[in-house]
Amino acid sequence: MELDKIENILEKYFQGETTIAEENQLKEYFSSSNVAQHLEQYKPMFGYFSQVKQQKSMQEIPLPKSRDKKRNVAWLSIAASIVVLLGIGTYFFASEKPAAQPVAQSELGTYDNPEEALAATQKALALLSNNVNVGIESVQYIQEYEQSKNKIFKQ
Fold this sequence. Notes:
The protein has 5 helices and no strands. It has helices at about 1-15, 20-30, 45-55, 65-95, 115-155. The protein is mainly α.
């Protein structure tokens, strides 16, 4: 009777329908010395599962040093300061142009025909949309990286 029960549980196991208790019964049966001859082929598989469960990984995961992080923050703050200074300098340089010269109508980017204006606007918005979508995709990759990093380092 026990052999029939083991065979039924084994069939359910390969169908993916066993419970944890039934799987434990299979492990106990195949770890014993009285396994039926026609079921001997499954003994190494269940022996492997119990053997691997007892193994523990001893591989060290190198963590980044906080000193490197501080150094990166320092360089980022210097780069941000330079960008801000260049932006302020460009603004003041561009605003000092003499306003006495009249600007031609074609240089303003205006249109006399509303259909041309609509087409130009749609073209500009499509270009902007494509660039924003590329940026959003990049941010999503960064978010996935952060989630994975947080799972690994449990911060």
